[in-house]
Amino acid sequence: MKIIETRTAPNPRRVRIFLAEKGITVAYEQRDLMAGELKDAAFTALNPLQRVPVLILDDGTAISESVAICRYFEEAEPVPPLFGTGPVGRAQVEMWQRRAELGLWLAVAQAFRHLHPKMAHLEVPQVAAWGEANKLKALEMMTMLDVQLRGNQFLAGDQYSIADITALVAIDYLKPAKIALPEGLEGLKRWHAEVSARPSAAA
């Protein structure tokens, strides 16, 4: 079993944090996405979207998409539970995971990919107006997350989950995307300090 990744990319980091929380060790194979190493025929056969990470199981099965990879390990090693427990708990984690991913992580990623000059050869065409629009979307979602985190230790309640992992990586992604964390979001800032202090955040 191994995971093919680009160490500096944010999506692989989500998986590494998840595995660190689980205490699971996996071998990694590095590919340089900036050098076009995800576009060769062999990798494209594993993931037609030409994105990392990709989990390769011992029988050769390839699983891509970060949350799908995390789901595989959740099913294989259910403790500690990072997708919630019980019908309500799992639903709440799913709700906040999707909000963090589609509302914040994706917006930050789109701002980065459409505005950063070094991404021009990978994001064709770059549309600057779309990048700027996504900066505003990210700011709106951070305000929503702040409201939730003023009354809860973690995004889905009192248990750390994959929703927190996604949001943590998204917030850390603000710097390369050149999006400033707004003033006054004390709930979000408190939460970010706490989850950043977890050993898994350095994975």
Plain-language structure description:
- This protein has about 200 residues and is of the alpha+beta class.
- The chain folds into 2 domains: about 1-75, 3-Layer(aba) Sandwich (Glutaredoxin), CATH 3.40.30; about 85-200, Glutathione S-transferase Yfyf (Class Pi), Chain A, domain 2 (Up-down Bundle).
- Helix content is about 55%, strand content about 5%.
- The protein contains 8 helices and 4 strands; from the N terminus they run E-H-E-H-E-E-H-H-H-H-H-H.
- It has helices spanning about 10-20, 40-45, 65-75, 85-115, 130-150, 160-170, 175, 185-195; strands at about 1-5, 25-30, 55, 60-65.
- Strands 2-1-3-4 form a 4-stranded mixed sheet, with helices on one face.
- A hairpin with a 5-residue loop joins strand 3 (about 55) and strand 4 (about 60-65).
Question: What is this structure, in a nutshell?
Answer:
This protein is an alpha+beta fold. It contains 8 helices and 4 strands; from the N terminus they run E-H-E-H-E-E-H-H-H-H-H-H.
List the helices and strands and how they pair.
Layout: E1 2-5, H1 10-22, E2 27-30, H2 41-46, E3 54-56, E4 62-64, H3 66-76, H4 86-115, H5 128-150, H6 162-172, H7 174-177, H8 186-196
Parallel strand pairs: 1-2
Antiparallel strand pairs: 1-3, 3-4
Helix pairs in contact: 1-3, 1-6, 4-5, 4-6, 5-8
Average pLDDT for all residues: 97
Strand order of the largest sheet: 2-1-3-4
How many β strands by DSSP? Answer: 4
**Top CATH class of the largest domain:** Mainly Alpha
Class from secondary-structure proportions = alpha+beta
Low-confidence stretches: none
Report the C-alpha radius of gyration, rounded: 17 Å
The end-to-end span amounts to 18 Å
Helix fraction bin: 40-55%
* Overall geometric form: globular
- The total count of helices amounts to 8
The largest sheet, given as strand count, sense and whether it forms a barrel, is: 4 strands, mixed
Q: Which topology of the largest domain does CATH recognise?
A: Glutathione S-transferase Yfyf (Class Pi), Chain A, domain 2
Give the H and E element order: EHEHEEHHHHHH
Q: Domain count, please report it.
A: 2
CATH architectural group of the largest domain: Up-down Bundle
Task: Bin the strand percentage.
Answer: 5-15%
